[in-house]
TrEMBL record, chains A, B:
SUPFAM superfamilies: Thioesterase/thiol ester dehydrase-isomerase (SSF54637). It comes from the Bacteria. The keyword Ubl conjugation does not apply. GO terms for molecular function: hydrolase activity. One of its GO terms (biological process) is fatty acid metabolic process. PANTHER family: ACYL-COENZYME A THIOESTERASE THEM4. Keywords: Cytoplasm, Fatty acid metabolism, Hydrolase, Lipid metabolism. This is Uncharacterized protein, possibly involved in aromatic compounds catabolism. InterPro entries: HotDog_dom_sf, THEM4/THEM5_acyl-CoA_thioest.
Length: 209, 209
């Protein structure tokens, strides 16, 4: 595994964010619109031409592969490409993770029609995605330490409605290379899904430490 | 919960699939290209104009909300919008689920850069999404019976590399309203993640049965 990271200054991060965030937002909107459009074949073909033109423009210069940037000030990965929190990945809601001084993490975000499982409800696997991610953030101190999910258990207490949601997570205890984290997905009426996870420091990081 | 479904004939399904699938594929490509583009601000702005034009075209006619279509022949939900299997949801890889006569489900699919967690590896939460979905397919006989995830436990045996993968699931046993399913995510060398889930028939469906 290659975990070499480069640093990005706060200023350069801000420049890239302000340039690329509108692009990701436009793609999120297109994902939603694409799911529910009922326009005829000719209109789809016309839309496709625009999408292909946009692709050709954006392909003119591509970063080679992996996203390994870290914030120069905090040392945390920028995680532009991450499917839960990535500001440049249209798949991500995105979750913006807040880190409290006591190590607790939380995030408030909205899950719209692209995350629907049963009609009107969030797909159970999307609940798992957001909880795996936020438990991992708590266990790894904001992804600043390499920790991998060992085991995660999700208890679905009731359906999670599409719309505004909150996720939170904290570390319960650590034993050697294992960190035990717990968290919740919540709507306005309280918890909908509870998660418990064990996160493990990989052997190569232990050797390096 | 409103679980009213409308039927769609094989012919109409095929017509809609062939019209809309290229659109979803184009969006999947744009998601990937958008993550890694390094073009300058002017080029981003030019691409954005195309994306906004495409959005305006596709918005001309939108289905009202929820996706409740079922195949007229099998009774299974079409699940166009589903974030794991939806042919019209650019977030979905998509998984195409195969159902064996013995109830086993499997799917082969590729997870590219949009699903990356640690550099080069699939995000643990994405592994959870695909496993929650395929266990649910097995437990609900291809989504033909309403079953909700009660509990799911995922054991991460090793990292899951980006690229071609396989998921499989089967029912271990049923006890009253509970169905116990098990499944695996695998690369060419075998299982990377193991999942065990309990799926529950909701009270309203029991009453209706």
């Amino acid at each position: 595994m290659d975990f070499t990271f480069e640093a990005i200054s706060a200023e350069e991060f801000e420049r890239q964010r302000s340039s690329f965030e509108p692009l990701t937002d436009a793609l999120r909107r297109l994902i939603d619109v694409g799911i529910h459009t009922e326009v005829d074949g000719d209109t789809v073909a016309e839309a496709l031409e625009h999408l292909e033109a946009a692709t050709a423009l954006l392909e003119r210069r591509q970063r080679a592969g992996r996203s390994t940037l870290r914030h120069a000030d905090t040392g945390r990965p920028v995680a532009w490409a991450n499917p839960a929190v990535g500001l440049r990945n249209a798949i991500a809601p995105p979750m913006i993770i807040e880190h409290e001084a006591d190590g607790t993490c939380w995030s408030e975000f909205t899950l719209g029609p692209a995350y629907e499982g049963p009609p009107g409800w969030v797909h159970g696997g999307i609940c798992a995605l957001v909880l795996d991610h936020i438990l991992g953030e708590a266990a790894s101190e904001g992804l600043s330490k390499p920790k991998f999910t060992g085991t995660i258990t999700l208890k679905y207490l009731r359906g999670t409605p599409l719309g505004p949601l909150r996720a939170e997570a904290f570390v319960e205890r650590s034993e050697g290379v294992k960190t035990f984290a717990r968290g919740y997905l919540l709507d306005a009426d309280g918890a909908t899904v509870e998660a418990e996870g064990v996160f493990i420091e990989p052997a190569w990081a232990r050797d390096a430490g």
